[in-house]
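so my prof wants the structure for this chain in the tokens format not the other one, which i didnt know existed until like an hour ago. anyway here's the sequence
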Amino acid sequence: MDDVDVRILNCLKENSRENASAIAEKVDMSVSAVIERIRKLENTGVIKKYTTVFDRKKIGNDVLAYIFIGLEHPKYNEGFTEFVRKNKNILEGNYITGDFDFLLKISTGSTEQLEKLLNEIKSVQGVSITRTIIVLSNLKNEFSASL
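here's what i got, hopefully its the right format
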């Protein structure tokens, strides 16, 4: 990856729907060269996917929370991981180091829904401890690393 690839990626990071001709102008290359570079970035896995970012509040998911999860034993990891993958309100699940085993990013429509999900999580076999943090406001929200 060179400087031109980084500039193309930064354009796509700002607007993944930006067409190749607009990107070509910004990076001072031909449209065909930009298209080829984007294909190469896709084929090598640098670009994993293109997606849409929703405004959580406008779609009714006003509550954002993080839940730390501790499991009794690693033998429960697989079952817990399966639960996480199936739940639509869990936006992100990370296996972490430290006092807890997992960190989940949760989005729900209300604190009542969050409470229900938290009780479901506590009911998953092997879950021994949870700690929940509710987000009051968001200061920054990036979706991929800076280049």
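also thought this was worth mentioning. DSSP finds five helices and four strands in the chain.
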